[in-house]
TrEMBL record:
<dbReference type="GO" id="GO:0000149">
    <property type="term" value="F:SNARE binding"/>
</dbReference>
<dbReference type="GO" id="GO:0031201">
    <property type="term" value="C:SNARE complex"/>
</dbReference>
<keyword id="KW-0175">Coiled coil</keyword>
<dbReference type="InterPro" id="IPR006011">
    <property type="entry name" value="Syntaxin_N"/>
</dbReference>
<dbReference type="GO" id="GO:0000045">
    <property type="term" value="P:autophagosome assembly"/>
</dbReference>
<dbReference type="GO" id="GO:0006906">
    <property type="term" value="P:vesicle fusion"/>
</dbReference>
<dbReference type="GO" id="GO:0048278">
    <property type="term" value="P:vesicle docking"/>
</dbReference>
<feature type="region of interest" description="Disordered">
    <location>
        <begin position="125"/>
        <end position="149"/>
    </location>
</feature>
<comment type="similarity">
    <text>Belongs to the syntaxin family.</text>
</comment>
<feature type="domain" description="T-SNARE coiled-coil homology">
    <location>
        <begin position="173"/>
        <end position="212"/>
    </location>
</feature>
<dbReference type="InterPro" id="IPR010989">
    <property type="entry name" value="SNARE"/>
</dbReference>
<dbReference type="InterPro" id="IPR000727">
    <property type="entry name" value="T_SNARE_dom"/>
</dbReference>
<dbReference type="InterPro" id="IPR045242">
    <property type="entry name" value="Syntaxin"/>
</dbReference>
<dbReference type="GO" id="GO:0098837">
    <property type="term" value="C:postsynaptic recycling endosome"/>
</dbReference>
<protein>
    <submittedName>
        <fullName>Syntaxin 12</fullName>
    </submittedName>
</protein>
<dbReference type="GO" id="GO:0030672">
    <property type="term" value="C:synaptic vesicle membrane"/>
</dbReference>
<dbReference type="GO" id="GO:0006886">
    <property type="term" value="P:intracellular protein transport"/>
</dbReference>
């Protein structure tokens, strides 16, 4: 249990936003680090370095990273329950922190799931080759049994050697079953990540709705106040008029930039939803292809 979770348990729902953000940031870094480790182990599958120990290590890191992602998802939901500060400056700071954290988590999660899919695909290919090889060995053995003659000891020794080869194949089949079971667990973890993407998209959407209204109010209120300040006074000369127009020009430039940044943040909020929709489409297409 993390230090944040221990503090939160002792204080009920009185969460500290700094503790939550710090915990989530640390988790995102660990997810990124673990994903790099998984990628390194993935590159060794099917090579001379492939072994049962390597596969177990790969499964352990992958599953622990999946658990870490689900914990981070829970922390982000806790973060959404933290009361909004009264100060506009603190509101904007908290909003930026949440957006940055969610974007970083979304990026790390997307990379992690991509590597998960690579591991699943490579494991399936390995199991398919192993099963094809075991069937081929079994068929060859049955054909040779039909042709073998026990007229001399050489034929008998050859038959004994074939029996030993068949025993090794049985052991290989047990390993294949273990890898198939690991693939099923991996695919279940991938579905968990899909659900996290869905939750993250909802949280980012809700975060945007809560922030857009204050931002719109600030954007409209500032130029109106400035207009009253400039136009409410009678200018004494052309210099005062030009200075007022210059202020308006600068303000409009700032508002244009603010609108552009707001649109960019809106697109970032849509990213997890688009990733989730893509993943669901891939699952449906894969199920359809397997069926037909």
């Amino acid at each position: 249990m993390s230090s944040y979770r221990q503090q939160a348990t002792g204080r009920g729902r009185d969460f500290n936003i700094s503790s939550i953000i710090q915990t989530c940031s640390g988790n995102v870094q660990r997810i990124t680090h673990n994903t790099a480790q998984i990628q390194s182990l993935l590159n060794q599958l099917g090579t001379s370095k492939d072994s049962t120990k390597l596969q177990q290590n790969l499964q352990q890191i992958q599953h622990s990273t999946n658990v870490l992602a689900k914990e981070t998802n829970t922390y982000l939901k806790d973060l959404a329950s933290v009361p909004t500060p009264l100060s506009p400056v603190e509101q904007r700071q908290q909003k930026l922190q949440k957006e940055r954290l969610m974007n970083e988590f979304s990026a790390a999660l997307n990379h992690f799931q991509a590597v998960q899919r690579q591991v699943s695909q490579k494991e399936k290919e390995t199991v398919a080759r192993a099963r094809a090889g075991s069937r081929l060995s079994n068929e060859e053995r049955q054909k040779e049994e039909q042709l073998v003659s026990f007229d001399n000891n050489d034929d008998w020794n050859q038959m004994q050697s074939q029996e030993e080869d068949f025993e090794i194949t049985e052991q290989d089949l047990e390993l294949i079953k273990e890898r198939e079971s690991a693939i099923q667990k991996l695919e279940a973890d991938i579905l968990d990540v899909n659900q996290i993407f869905k939750d993250l998209a909802v949280m980012i959407h809700d975060q945007g709705e809560m922030i857009e209204a204050p931002m719109a109010f600030d954007s409209c209120d500032v130029p109106e106040a400035l207009t009253r300040q400039c136009c409410g006074q009678q200018p004494d000369n052309n210099f005062t008029v030009c200075k007022c127009c210059l202020r308006h020009s600068k303000l409009l430039t700032v508002l244009d930039i603010s609108a552009f940044l707001s649109f960019g943040r809106f697109l970032l909020r849509l990213l997890p939803l688009m990733i989730w929709m893509r993943n669901v489409s891939e699952i449906i297409l894969s199920a359809f292809l397997r069926k037909y």
